[in-house]
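User: I'm preparing a small set of examples for a lab meeting where we compare how different chains pack in three dimensions. I only have the primary sequence for this one, and I'd like the structure in token form so I can line it up with the others. Please keep the answer compact; I'll paste it straight into my notes.
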Amino acid sequence: MYSRNSKLAPPGSQASPEVNILQNQVDWILSGGLCVYPTTTQPALGCLPLPEYLNLLYSVKKRSPNKPVSIGVVNLEQASDYVEIPTGLESFLSHFERGAITVLLPGKKELDTRLGTKGVAVRVLDHPIARDLVKQTGPLSATSANISGTDPLKSCYEAALELGGRDAGIDWIDAISQGGLPSTLISWPLQIGLNASRAPKILREGKIPIKEVMTAWKNPI
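Assistant: Understood. Below is the structure token output for the 221-residue chain.
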């Protein structure tokens, strides 16, 4: 069983309300498949964040199980089944363009360790196609769509083929990501503001420089 990929209208255009242009991909993901989808940085490889589906994702990426993957959501509320949403986080993130920061948050329950052992990394997606997708599927893995250790591609189609394509159980959305630096990954402490005893820890500097993260931290909205 496999769904055909569907051609998308350019971001910002309006699809016919009678046609869900992502229906094939949504159905495939909900049935346990993988899908390469666009983000504002690099194409992501999405699956439902459940053990049986993560098995396939880690296999095609050749990724070590000791390296957790992040999840992509349409808003923080959508992540609330997986993580605690700290007071002040939404205000902090409003300093930056959506999707530029990924935040490691405390897990709400015992989860697959491939989502993290010290928390779960959550990214609020900004790309309109990605947002439409996760609105319909719920949270998805948001790891880059590449074999571990190789450079990501910009084309979702080419990334899917590199990972094995349909023979490997991977669908895709016909879209191009802009490329460039990945999101900046931070861990979230318990307090915010100038007098906070702890500041966020930068786990990976990416689209947002460390200096900008710390400026926003010291000047909460």
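A couple of notes for your slides: The beta strands are 34-37, 44-46, 71-73, 101-105, 120-124, 140-141, 143-144, 170-172, 184-187, 201-204. The mean pLDDT is 88.

User: Perfect, thanks.
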